[in-house]
Amino acid sequence: MNRTPNTKFSERALDWAIWAFLWTFRVLVVLVVVVGSLLTLSSGKYSFEVWVDLIVDGATLGGVYALIALGYTMVYGILRMINFAHGEVFMIGAFAGYFTGTFLNNIGFLNASPLASIVSIAVMMLVAALVATAVALLVERLAYRPLRNSPRLVLLISAIGASFVLQYSVKGIVGVGVFAYPSVTFLAESVDLPILSALRLRWSDVVIIGSALLMMVGLYAFTMRSKTGTAIRAVSEDPAAATLMGIDVNRAIVMTFAIGAAMAGAAGVLFGLIFRQVAFTTGFIPGIKAFTAAVLGGIGNIPGAMIGGMFLGGVESVGPQLIFDGLGVPSANQLKDVIAFTLLVLVLIFRPQGILGERLSRSRA
Amino acid sequence: MTATTATPLVSADRGWRGVLIVGAIGGAIALYLSLVGIVPIFGERPLVRDIISLGQMSLVLTGIAIGWWAATRAPVGVGSALLAGLVAGLMTGGTLTLLMVLNEFVRLRSFAPNASPALWEILTFATEPPIAGSWIPAVLGAGLGLFGAALVLMPRLLRRVLVANLVALLVVGLFAGLVRTPMLSGPLSGLARQLFASEGLTVLGAVITLVVTTLLVVALDTLSVRDRVRRMPTARRQKSVIPLAIIALLFVLWLPLGLGSFAALAFATIALYVLMGLGLNITLGLAGLLDLGFVAFFAVGAYTVALLTSTGDLGIAQLSFWVAVPFAVLAAMLFGVVLGLPILGIRGDYLAIATLGFGFIIEILARSDLLSPWLGGPQGITNVPPPIATNPDDFLAGPNQIYYIALVCAAIIAFVAYRLRGSRLGRAWIAIREDEDVAEALGVNLVQTKMLAYMLGAGFAGLGGAIFAGLVGAMFPSSINIMVSINVVAIVVVGGMGSIPGVVVGAAFLIGLPELFREFAEYRFLFYGIALILVMRFRPEGLLPSRIGKQSMDQSVDPVMAASISDDDALVGGKA
């Protein structure tokens, strides 16, 4: 609110009204969360085990969100553009994993032994990552690169168009059905290890959280240590200076899309293993939620995306029971998605720079 | 080859490599059209009965376009241009031949259901077994490519006649069924039966279409109508527009009456979207705020009207439609303020995703058990009376009245938008759209100005929702579909951001085609996506741009990023 002395009284009054409204809104939200949580906890309706289960569920889902969020955050960092098609790239990864998994299941390899299952999942993720990368690079080439010197609104609309083309191409090619992911029997078994038994984990939780963490650590090391990673960081810091330093800006951008898409494709397989199904609409809502996670962690910030994803997964999983149940809302789980989107709006109001802060080039901010 | 100066794709780097790339692109397009289902599903819609279907036409046009494109990329010379068209066409069709051969070894159908006998039948003209006819697409593709290349080399008039004939066949063939139905009941029924099949043209109709088109093109060319209009004094030109405008207006008013009830519903929907498009045109076109949560306010308006007017259990006031509408608009505007205030202060492109979230939140809430005592949950609110009570056979019955109401409201909104654009507020919006920082430095209060645009857009969305509730006679959560938002955004963007006639054209094109033709409805959002990308790529100011929009969309923002676009950019069509 800039209060220059020359502004008219009516404008100042409106300014003040806006300010008052925003603060009322903030207080109200905090009140709902605190009162709801206290009422739920004091009622003792859910046991400790239930909360642990919810948190573990939240962590698996959060791992998937975090992997998708990485692509959003890196592309935003380098091009200052919301890659709307990223959610569809994730969905295409899930489909690639589905077809690979079904093939492996048909030849009897998928459930041959726990080791074969692990290898199968790795193969599925690899194929998904490759297909997703190919699609993302095609989109970048056809829909984004020609518009790179256009106003941001133009690029954003083109990205929305790309999202629809991908989504409805998949609908046209594979059909409207919901495809059941092949079941991996080994993943449904619970983990019998001494320390972890208190968490009541299943192998699926271990595999999903483990592979998500592994990929994130790998990506972090890659962006921090490798030459390409350094180039990517340099371009998102300041493209003009990066060009002067002899960095191929175009290559850095392509690499950014490729890495983000590979992560999203692999995340598609993990998503399929969690929810056991995939359809052409699968990518839309996880895509928006992952963007929320990216904003939550601080857009352009790679560790931020990881933390944001985990946080969002946790809140989404625990929130309905913790907040709404105490307030006596019927079928609180229906409102799961409301929490995620409200969280986005709240972050934008309270801390638009995200938990860990933004990492964007100052010259173009 | 000097005749080809008119084509935009001529680039300096002609060569066989470019031709092969064009051929590969053609193959990819043909493969895509086949597998995504456009060829088999459009194959069910004949353009000329027993001769050619829309699906076949899509491949034919691809072949010709690829031949044309290849010829403009080939080394200079008549022979090499023709050869280039032949090669690229062969690659285009040959890809489909390869697909058929591949299908002999791998069961493609298990993951691409469209690779079905229906597709092979279309590609081989029902040769049995299909694989025996697998050479047909390749040879046909080569022929079409050759034809496309020949088009480039032809004298101008001949080329115009041929292209116009192709377009005429496509357009008349599409609309034939629609024109035929009302004609059957009139004195022209015999003629209608002769010329039009139930879908598409008859052979006689096609021949007449071709002859008429040819005569028309030749006549227009020899009389050079366009030059004469251009040479006319401005005052006289404007005068001659007035009677045309009156005829157009009468035609628009007559449309739902003349074409039957099915078309009337389609036209009512188009009018509704024109109205909403004009509303978003203020938010997106003038102020540059990409609002993807339009459906949220649409829902608020619709539910308000439903609640206030419903004669069912959930109705609370049983007001008349006309009393309820102002409340609906006000409620939508209020929601606009409440939702908009927290986010409008923040970066522009976050707005898109935050508003997208709003659309979802409103849908989830409307469906939830939390609000079902008031909003009826998934069952929604029913028994909403129509705005004007009529007899069933009255000319204002059913969708007709909605069409006229929506048209009147659209006209009012268009007038408001037109007057606002030149006002202080409108200029402030445009300033914000162009550059927020500069606008703020010049004394524009960002949050308040954006708020007003957002609120007006929300109000018009609410009006659209209110009329929608009157049209359907009920409101269900399933009507709160994110696709409503996408429809409206696509209309505004394709038509031309900030342009009022653009919105009308955009709505007629993007809503009209899928409403009138079932086959298009199947691929509606695919076409939207393609349209959004193509419009942003080649004509970011839209099909019918406003004067201001045209200036602002062409500028470059970042010379370094511009420079980083590599030279091989010409691969995908080059800089037009």
Quick description:
The complex is a heterodimer of chains A (365) and B (576). Chain A is an all-alpha fold.
Description:
The complex is a heterodimer of chains A (365) and B (576). Chain A has helices at residues 9-43, 48-79, 86-106, 114-144, 152-174, 185-188, 203-225, 227-237, 239-244, 249-275, 284-297, 302-324, 336-350; strands spanning 179-180, 277-278. With 365 residues, chain A is an all-alpha fold. Chain A has one domain (49-359): Orthogonal Bundle (ABC transporter involved in vitamin B12 uptake, BtuC). The model of chain A has no long low-confidence stretch (mean pLDDT 83). Chain A is globular and about 75 Å long. The two termini of chain A are 19 Å apart. Chain B has helices at 16-35, 38-42, 54-73, 78-105, 117-124, 135-153, 156-184, 189-195, 203-223, 225-231, 234-258, 260-286, 294-309, 321-344, 348-367, 372-375, 399-422, 424-434, 436-441, 446-472, 482-495, 500-516, 518-522, 524-538, 547-553, 559-563; strands at 46-48, 52-53. With 576 residues, chain B is mainly α. A two-stranded antiparallel ribbon of chain B has the order 1-2. In chain B, a hairpin with a 3-residue loop joins strand 1 and strand 2 (52-53). Residues 1-12 and 555-576 of chain B have low confidence and may be disordered. Helix content of chain B is 71%, strand content 1%. The interface between A and B is large, with 73 and 72 residues.
Shape of chain B: globular
Shape of chain A: globular
CATH topology of chain A: ABC transporter involved in vitamin B12 uptake, BtuC
Strand content of chain A: under 5%
Q: Number of DSSP helices of chain B? A: 26
SSE blueprint and pairings:
The complex is a heterodimer of chains A (365) and B (576).
Chain A: H1 9-43, H2 48-79, H3 86-106, H4 114-144, H5 152-174, E1 179-180, H6 185-188, H7 203-225, H8 227-237, H9 239-244, H10 249-275, E2 277-278, H11 284-297, H12 302-324, H13 336-350
Antiparallel strand pairs in A: 1-2
Helix pairs in contact in A: 1-12, 2-7, 2-8, 2-10, 2-11, 2-12, 3-4, 3-5, 3-10, 3-11, 4-10, 7-8, 7-10, 8-10, 11-12, 11-13, 12-13
Chain B: H1 16-35, H2 38-42, E1 46-48, E2 52-53, H3 54-73, H4 78-105, H5 117-124, H6 135-153, H7 156-184, H8 189-195, H9 203-223, H10 225-231, H11 234-258, H12 260-286, H13 294-309, H14 321-344, H15 348-367, H16 372-375, H17 399-422, H18 424-434, H19 436-441, H20 446-472, H21 482-495, H22 500-516, H23 518-522, H24 524-538, H25 547-553, H26 559-563
Antiparallel strand pairs in B: 1-2
Helix pairs in contact in B: 1-3, 1-4, 3-4, 3-6, 4-6, 7-8, 7-9, 11-12, 12-17, 12-20, 12-21, 12-22, 13-14, 13-15, 13-20, 14-20, 17-20, 18-20, 21-22, 21-24
